[in-house]
Amino acid sequence: MVYVKKKSTSMNPKESTEVAEIPSYFICPISMQIMGDPITICTGITYDRESMEKWIYSCGNNTCPATMQVMSNFDMIPNHTLRRLIQGWCLANSSNGVQRIPTPKPPVEPNQVNKLLRDFESCPPFQVVNRLKKLKSLAAESEANRRCIAACGGASALISVMETNTVEMESEGYECAMACEEALGILHSLPMTDATADSLTLSKTLKSISWILKRGSCNARLHSVMLLKTLSSSGQNRLQKLVANADEDLIEGLLQLVTEEVCPQATASSLEVLMAICSPSRKHRMKAIEAGAIYILIESLPESRGLTCEKLLSLLDILCECAEGRATTIDHAMGIASISKKIFRVSHAATEKAVRILWSLCKFSPTPRLLKEMVQIGAVHKLCMLLPLECTAKTKHKAREILREQGKYWRSSPCVPSHLFTVYGEQ
Fold first, then answer.
1. Is the confidence at residue 291, as pLDDT, over 50?
2. Which of 12, 37, 135, 331 could make an S-S bridge to 49, C-beta 3.0–4.6 Å?
3. Are 148 and 113 in contact, with CB atoms under 8 Å apart?
4. What is the pTM of this model?
C-alpha cells in the first residue's frame, strides 16, 4: 500500500503525522508513483506515459512490464477516465498537502514539427533561434515528441542549421552562435540514428562542434562532448570516420574542457573521446601532444580521484607511445612524481596504468635524468613493494622488467635497499 503524508492541523507537535492512502490503481507499476498521464497498452495494462516510453525507447524492451508478454504494437491509448479520477482524488486531498496533477499536453503532430523545421536556411538568425526554442520546448515535453521530431527529419535540419550558422558566425555574431547552441541542445536530446551519426562525423559538422567546444556555453559544451562520446562508441566504422575527420580544433576543444573542469561528466567524456581518437592514430597523438595534452594531464593528476584519475592515466599512457610524448613527460618537473604518486593510492586500474607508463618510459626512453628521478621520488621502491602484493600478472611482469633492465643503475643508490633487488628484482 502507498501513502502520502497529510499536513498536520494540530498545534501539538507530539501528535503523529497523518497519511493519506493512495488507491493502488493510481500507481504506475513501473515507477511506483502516482500516474500523471495514464495510458493503456495492447496488453490492457495501464502505465504512466513517461515511464512506459522510457521502458520501450530508452531501455529497448518489447514486453509488457507487468505480464512480460511480447507487445504486438507500441500504441499508447490515453486513459482519460483514470486521469480524471486521479485529478479528482488529488483535488479532494489538496488540503492535506497533495498537489493536483495537471492535464498532460497531447503529443505534438508532425505538421506542427514540419512547420517549425521549414525554411530554416532562408530565415534570418533571430527567427531561426525563436523557432529552435519552440522546438526545444516540444522536445522537452515527452519521448513521443522527440521521436516525432526525429521522424520528421529534425536531425538533418538541425545539423544544417549548425553548419550554416558556423559559416556565418564571423559576420552575424551572437545570434548565429545562439542558433548553433540551440540546435545542438535539441540534437543531443533526439534518438541517435545511423544517418544522424554518419552526418555528425563529417568534417563540416565536426567544425561546428569544435567551435561550440571552445567557445560555447557550459551546457552547449557538455552536449557537444556527449554527442562525440556517443559517436566514438557507436561502432568501428563510425569511429574510423571520426578519427579521419577530427582536426586540431576538435582536439584543442576537448583538452580545454579537461583544463576548465566545466563539470565531472564533461571532463570524463572529453577524456574518453580523446582516448578513442588518439589510440588508433599517431597523427592525432602528435596533435594532442602539440596542443599541450601532456602538460594538462600531468597537472590534472595530483588532485584527481577515482575514474577521472584512471582516465587521465589511460590517455597519458596512449600519448607515451610516441617518443615525443615520453620526452615531454620526462621533461615536465611534475611528470614522474605525479605518475608514481598514483601507485597504490587510487585503484588497481590506476596502479596498472601508472606502472605501464613508467615501463614505457624506462623501456624506450631511459635517460639518466629519468632513472635518477625515479630513485629520488621513491618510484623504484614502490615497484619493488608492488611485486609481492595482489595485482595483475601483467603489472607485476612490467614492474619486474623495469627492475631487471635498470637495476644496475639503481643498485648502487643509497635510496633503495639492496635486499629489495635480491628478493624481487631478480625473480
1. yes
2. 37
3. yes
4. 0.81
